[in-house]
Amino acid sequence: MFSCIIKTTDNYFRHGLFILLKEALMDCHVNANATLADDADWHTKMVFIDADSSYCHRTLEQTYQAYKNQQSGTPGIFIILRSKGALLPLNMSYNTSAHILYKSDEQADIKSKIGVVIKNALGRKNTINPTV
After folding, report:
1. 39 with 67: CB under 8 angstroms?
2. Residues 110/19, Cβ–Cβ less than 8 Å
3. Against a cut of 0.90, is the pTM above it?
């Protein structure tokens, strides 16, 4: 099971992002079913957070707390911005690296960014089980 969280109020973008995530998993030969979760726990592999949403910081804090005492590393975190001219909120300074997705990005770009994070996780800690 590949658990992820997509926190955005734009349901069309959320659905499209979930489809692109499934395609990226297939491209990386990951044999796991992608499922959407509401809250972060230590099983969560990826978190997508809309920077414009009111629950952005709460979701980051929740993810941080879920992984604080775990040895398995942190999930891939993506911050979703409206466009390339948009700015990140000032107080986003957790001890985790986040990747940036723009709503204006093309499908291939978004899928590529997700694929890079999946491949890094496979090479680093093997927290995602690949198909052999």
Report:
1. no
2. no
3. no
